[in-house]
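Incident log entry.

Two folding requests arrived from the same account within the same minute. Monitoring flagged them as a possible duplicate submission, but the sequences differ. Recording both here for audit purposes.

Request one:
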Amino acid sequence: MWDTLYQAFSLVFNLDPEVWSIAFTSISVSAIALLNGVIIGLPLGAFLAIAHFPGKKWCLTILNTCMNVPTVIIGVLIYLLLSRSGPLGDLGLLFTKTGMIIAQTLLTTPIIAAISRQIIADAWQSHRDTFTSLHLRLFHQMKWILWDCRFSLVIVILLGFSRAISEVGAVMIVGGNIAHHTRTLTTAIALETSKGDLALSLSLGIVLLSIVLLANIAAHFLKSSAERKYG
């Protein structure tokens, strides 16, 4: 066991090209998917929190269901859409980073939208009368309530990032786990463990945990400094 640990840390600290190439693929794909999820999910969460329209309860039910859908189902659906016989097959996105980004975007968006909706709905109870008296349009109400909840929404973004970078099933189905192309940290860990290369698998796990830890530390300091500055 100690030899495996030593080899794993050696691969990380010696900047093994394979380890860091896989890490870069994971970070880049997850970051873009997270950005897409934030752009779509936060406004959607704000809209569902403050708007009133027929069928809103059904929309919330569907959103909560999407948040808990097994990731392999998302992977299969995207695979069918992007396969050569699928409606988007001509785009050639299957087994590409773009296809993986699409899959991860569909995974991050519901969780960002659902949790941000709850946070914003709680804040809306305090701001509803003020915004109503100012006769603000819905778009401006959404904009200002999002700004008011910006510190609380940091945790939502972190959850979205964790959801994206820790994903296995969907990205393996859509990306194909192709070496030096679509292999991510999680899919590589699964592959190398099944092959018995525990040193490489453990080194990838160390990198994955380090990325998540650094993201949490950065978010904590960002939130703390912003709260001190803006109160």
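Request two (distinct sequence, not a duplicate):
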Amino acid sequence: MLQNDLIDILLVSSDFVFLSTDNAGKILTVTPAIREVFNLQEGEVEGQNFNQLIPALSLYPQAEFEVVQARGGLEMMVEDEACDEGIDYMEFLASHTQSNGRFELETEILQGPNWVSLVVNKVLSDGDIIYTVMIRDITQRKKDEHEILDLNQNLEARVESRTSQIKGVVMSCSAELEQVNTTYQKMKEKQMDLMESIEASVLSDTDNLNESQISQIQSAISRELVKSMNLYSEDQITDQQFMLTMMSLNELFGGESCEDKNLKPGQLSGTSQDEVDDLLGSLGL
């Protein structure tokens, strides 16, 4: 099989449209994929200007571009420094392809896609400039991209809403947490004062004790005082853990930096994510 025959087979069986135009943008040849992509026959397209197939091209170029040198054959660049120019929109597409790759365009085509990808090359053939154009229908990909973007935006909105809700609850607890912390501190200080006075009070009310008896009493008092140090029940300890976690949350949400706007897993030092989740769950969040 000759190489040209293989190229013809590939072009005929491809899922993209491959066409060529002259210097003025008039379509010279087109592959059968035009039937699938644009729902048109080859004979309906050949002879038309390329901007009739894709009307939005008439709006281009909207920005400045550099005219590219036509390629001699498929690879060799023309040595002449002068650049022959074709119609503006074809020159724009060829320049964009050479600088940035494919050009993606949203357009209203009655019998075709809404989004197309264009790869345009400027070629010198038998002394004349022609343009080769590869067209792909990327409408479905663009729809998928928009759906993903919408999902991401909705997710960000939900995260922001939930973070705002958590922040409101945490901020509302600040005054109560301060009062709880003050109460616990006072209880601890009072307990220490009582412990220091108990031994002196007991010994002062007891007469005629020898050193051995005093030592035994001191040991007994010490043991009982150690036991009495645990004044907090399990519920009180849980309250303290709750208080410390809420204080950590309050510190996180109290900052103005961008990093603190949304709570991240593992952001609470000394508190596991499961504990944070349980805490927020107990608050109905």
